[in-house]
């Protein structure tokens, strides 16, 4: 069992996760069998293994089930408005460049109401790390159709099945400019934790999609079994294809789930590029912002 | 404390209200702005984009006003003073983040250069029709502070005030300009940095175990701040929360928290409010106005005085919190009040409410697009004086 050197965060040898959580906020709101807790476990594992200075890491969430992650982790944490975690994180990162900023939110929050912000942050290559828990539905509000819901799925607002096409998240995010794009399911806990660690170490806009069950609303309504059945399903249909063309990794209701690291490329992040550009344009007159000043 | 001299352009300038507001923000210590272009406010961020890399500040043009209005809140928690600027439709888009800033007690400044509406309305022409929206536009109960400059000089001065008040009360503060004030060019005197009073952010000095992000301090009933990276591991949420910042969605916590958000401003309203009064003592009629309309009304008042009428003026520099105490005291002493504003009746509702029927209250409305004809205000003065 590893231990961290972070001052405020002694890891208990018996339970590596506990010190990362606001235990005084337990029990959490997530349903039995929900995958969000599993992703948080992987997140804390990634923090331990990457030896992140937890005082220099902030987490920003939007609204929804995954939006509640910010409230349970013992970090500087921001539970923002619906869809706006990324522009909040953008302001936070620019004002405090030495802080690692993680956006932890759901598919509806990031790709429907917040979709515009996501593509622009990827375009800018803002140095923020996005963990998107994709449960294929709006879970907090009762299981309505999301832009990620595959076709022919029963939802609270599609009682006869969905017929509008879903987004292929890795394809969209790659096209918008992200430098790191990966997808795992909540079955792939080791791979997910390693992938998060890899993303933290990479400068620029990183994105990990975690396909995750919502047994209460998605699986049950579509007669796909319980949480354990979903784990078996993920195990059966997942295929690891690192470097797979993202155009070919779209999800369907019961077809193959392509997982792996799809994109890992180099491009100057927003802040680095801005400094270089302004230095070139203004020369000696350029005074870079030096993080927090509040005179 | 005094302003940081790095950002202060000391001297006499000839500049418009938009540019002056930008200089006010810089003098107040703003080192971050996020914006989205919209007429007639864009010049504020155009100037900031020019100035920022020379003063250690950051400007980012966001993808829309939703993004701009929350990027500034992220920046504030990153430890800087931040503002955004908009007008009309952009202001409508920002409403949710006004509520978020109120709820999370995030000090910040919004500059709204008002244009004619509703909807796209009159992009290049003035109005003062966002005065109720700024107070009531976001959902739920809340109080904010709104200031109304009537000259480029005041755009500079009041933008500094806006930042100072936002830090003092941890509340979003609004500089409610209008297109005419924003685009009018006049002399603006910027004092030396040591003559500019700046309210610093009240960062806590408590240790992590005793600090509570939402525990009120002092007669401002306002908690101390922190920023990311200090080890406080704060939780900031728009959900109803307790003093630790933890979500707690019970009627008791809602009552305690929302009441404090409101009373920290209401209980301090007399300290916050600034009005400018002229010849109000012994007046029969008092003309109430703000922003550009106060300068048009002045002409009507002079004409009325030339006719021998006893007319005073009362200019709202602070529109919100509304200076109730002043109107309640004034109403029994005058025949009536004439409220001139570039809308079809907004702040006049507050004047009527506080007059409590003790004097006549006449509205001189205008749908916007230009300023009033002073004759219209004069007519109302004559009518009320009769």
Strand proportion of chain A: 15-25%
User: Which class best fits the helix and strand makeup of chain A?
Assistant: alpha/beta
CATH architecture of chain A: 3-Layer(aba) Sandwich
Distance between the termini of chain A: 45 Å
Radius of gyration of chain B: 21 Å
The top-level CATH class of the largest domain in chain B is: Alpha Beta
Kindly identify the CATH topology of chain A.
Rossmann fold
The helix tally of chain B amounts to: 14
Assembly state: heterodimer
Q: How many distinct folded domains of chain B?
A: 2
CATH topology name of the largest domain in chain B, in short, is: Rossmann fold
Q: Can you summarize the main beta sheet of chain B?
A: 8 strands, mixed
> CATH top level of chain A?
Alpha Beta
Helix content of chain B: 25-40%
Our count of domains of chain A comes out at 1
Q: Biggest interface in this structure? A: A-B, 49 and 58 residues
Structural class of chain B: alpha/beta
Average pLDDT of chain B works out at: 98
Q: Would you identify the CATH H-level superfamily of chain A?
A: Thiamin diphosphate (ThDP)-binding fold, Pyr/PP domains
Descriptive report:
The complex is a heterodimer of chains A (295) and B (386). Chain A is an alpha/beta fold and 295 residues long. Chain A has helices at 36-49, 69-72, 85-95, 107-113, 115-124, 169-176, 189-201, 215-219, 227-237, 270-282; strands spanning 57-61, 76-79, 100-106, 128-134, 180-185, 206-211, 238-240, 257-264. Helix content of chain A is 33%, strand content 16%. Chain A contains ten helices and eight strands. Residues 1-6 of chain A have low confidence and may be disordered. In chain A, strand 5, helix 7 (189-201) and strand 6 form a beta-alpha-beta unit. Chain B is an alpha/beta fold and 386 residues long. Chain B folds into two domains: 5-195, Thiamin diphosphate (ThDP)-binding fold, Pyr/PP domains (Rossmann fold); 273-385, Rossmann fold (3-Layer(aba) Sandwich). Chain B is built from 14 helices and 16 strands. In chain B, the strands form three sheets. In chain B, strands 2, 3, 4, 5, 6, 7, 8 and 14 form an eight-stranded mixed beta sheet that branches. Chain B has a five-stranded mixed beta sheet with strand order 11-13-12-15-16, sandwiched between helices. In chain B, a hairpin with a 5-residue loop joins strand 5 and strand 6. At the A-B interface, strand 2, helix 3 and helix 5 of A face strand 2, helix 3, helix 5 and strand 10 of B.
